[in-house]
Amino acid sequence: MNHRFEPIAKEPAYLKVFRTIEADILAGRLEPGASLPTEGELSNQFGLNRSTVREGIRQLEEAGLVERGAAKRLIVCRPEAGSVAQRASRSLAHQGVTFIDVWETLVLVEPEAARLAASRCTEEQIEAFEAAHAAFDTLDADDHEKLVELAVGFFQRVAECTDNDVLLVTLQSLNMLIAPPLRLVLGRAPRATRRIRDAQAMIIEALSKGDGDKAAEWMLKHVNDLKRGFSVAGLDLNDKVL
Amino acid sequence: MNHRFEPIAKEPAYLKVFRTIEADILAGRLEPGASLPTEGELSNQFGLNRSTVREGIRQLEEAGLVERGAAKRLIVCRPEAGSVAQRASRSLAHQGVTFIDVWETLVLVEPEAARLAASRCTEEQIEAFEAAHAAFDTLDADDHEKLVELAVGFFQRVAECTDNDVLLVTLQSLNMLIAPPLRLVLGRAPRATRRIRDAQAMIIEALSKGDGDKAAEWMLKHVNDLKRGFSVAGLDLNDKVL
DNA sequence: ATTATCGGGTTGTCGGACAACGTAAGATGA
DNA sequence: TCATCTTACGTTGTCCGACAACCCGATAAT
Q1: Secondary structure class of B190 (helix, strand, coil)
Q2: Is the shortest CB-to-strand distance from B68 to strand C under 7 Å?
Q3: Given B79, B94, B102, which is nearest A91 (Cβ)?
Q4: How far is the CA of A71 from the C1' of D5 (A)?
Q5: Residues A188-193: contacts with CB within 8 Å, 24+ apart?
Q6: A64 to chain B: nearest residue by CA?
């Protein structure tokens, strides 16, 4: 009797352009690395004005589905893990998350991620860990920026060792949220550098031995230390991360 | 002596428009709910053509920072968790992740998330769980779509109970990756419905009692069941989720 | 008071135009 | 013949001007 009609979609044309090309990329009809037709060609094929097509292209860009390659041609690109995580991280920051939110999540996932990493990391990855760790020896005590990089980079490497793309992106987005609060901490907690270095050393040792339990245990200590440093520095755990 | 200069950024103007407005939103100078000037006004203020401004606006749209509200005016919106997660999830799917990647991550986070949920969920949330669970009784055995919705919705509710925005977004993106493989499973595993219902019942009971251990334990069983169903259905764990 | 009509303002789309830049092909030199 | 320079062309980024469709608020009609 009373048949329900779908609300008829009245999308603007530029959105259709976006969705159409997105669908083709997603379905694999446009392979990563392939180059899209020129704007002129696209507007011909779609039967739309170049301005309209351009607006759709800008959205593809922001979605990370295409990039301007050489010759400025548009290149299809499956966004790599890093950029995906960056986007996710930025969105999280927009949300106004607090340090306690980040820390809780770190506690929840990092130790288990370290356990997984212990069972999967390769020789090369261990070497990369040790090479990065050596940078602590030549570290200027006041070079906070470098230390932040080392700390976050360490987490990133652990994430890579899990050999799991979903976990990788998840951890990466999380890790990027560590940097801002860590910067705050470093200015006020002189002992932090040493504690970070020691914890990393223990975790690296555990990883190299494939000792998942120890890796998880020390990762938990390491993450807890972050929170401790935050408190010691007299900062409010409920402050916005960004 | 030899001072290093930053490579001078030669961003196109539409990108500057995007970044400028984004920065203002991020810094809180533009509050969520506030409405942006009209396109004409913006192009005046920026000293750019309306077309150029429009391209920047399209990017803000895709980034989820603005929406067209009533009167089609652009209104600033901090993207809510759901849409952030959706974007993240879509990006993950683009990556071509496999079911085993998703499952591994589920095993890693869902039980602990359930434990956290047990210690934090409110009366209303428990009631919502029970209301949703009641839907199983009136469920048509062949209505796979409805069952998928119930299954994913359950995970979402658990995520909400954690009362942690970071975890919420993380879990939500993950949960959205469950639906496609689950659809495949349901067609070939007739017992799945009952198993899902029972596991949910146990978890809900644990949550209502604030029994974190039990919640985690059953959540683990629940997630493992997903993988089991996937194998039973004769599907390849290394297949792409999407 | 409710409904119908009208006007102004805004967006979505269009067509055309041009400078800047990179590419590629052709011209020039060793 | 091969390398290098020059030139013409194509593409992008930006601009201008224009118009229909649409939404909202104000006014008029029932």
Answers
A1: coil
A2: yes
A3: B79
A4: 21
A5: A188/A232, A188/A233, A188/A234, A189/A229, A189/A232, A189/A233, A192/A225, A192/A229, A193/A136, A193/A139, A193/A141, A193/A147
A6: B91
Q: Is A14 (CB) below 7 Å from strand C? A: yes
Probe site for chain B from A105, A106, A172, A238 (most B CB atoms < 10 A): A105
pLDDT, tens digit, 9 for 90 and up, residues A156-173: 999 999 999 999 989 998
Q: What single letter denotes the amino acid at residue A227?
A: K
Sign of the CA dihedral running B6, B10, B11, B17: positive
Residue that the structure tokens 């067209």 belong to: B68
What rounded mean pLDDT belongs to chain B? 89
Residue A239 has a pLDDT of 81
Average pLDDT over residues A29-36: 87
Q: Which residue is nearest to nucleotide D14 (CA to C1')?
A: B52
Handedness of CA B69, B70, B72, B74 (dihedral sign): negative
Say what percent of chain A tops pLDDT 90: 58
> Does B18 contact A59 at a Cβ distance shorter than 8 Å?
no
pLDDT number for residue A190: 77
Closest CA to A92 of A178, A174, A179: A174
> Which B residues in the span 107-126 are in contact with A, Cβ-Cβ below 8 Å?
108-109, 112-113, 116
pTM for the complete prediction?
A: 0.81
Q: B162 is written with which tokens?
A: 């954690």
